[in-house]
Model the fold of this input.
Amino acid sequence: KDIALSLGSWTKEIILKPHLIPGKLSNTWNVIKKEAHHYWLGTKLLAAEVKVASKIVGRVTAGHTMSRRERMQLMRTTVDVFRLIPLLIIVLIPFMELALPII
Done:
């Protein structure tokens, strides 16, 4: 309900005061850039953690034992990868539907 009211007031404000549109759009663009940067850094961090985890798994398969810190790192990375799967499904399915006419 609050979102609908704020969207309604925002729309009304834009209609009544069109000179405010550039300021609103630049603010929206800054928010989009900030979020994209956040996801980019998170992706790089996940890639680094997967790289470290793969080295740990390589050492374990060679017969070495894991320390507590390595075990926690491996568990954290595995949980992060499994958390990413539903997000990928939610994001990729709409884009795949848009790509159907191209294929």
Summary: The chain has a mean pLDDT of 83.
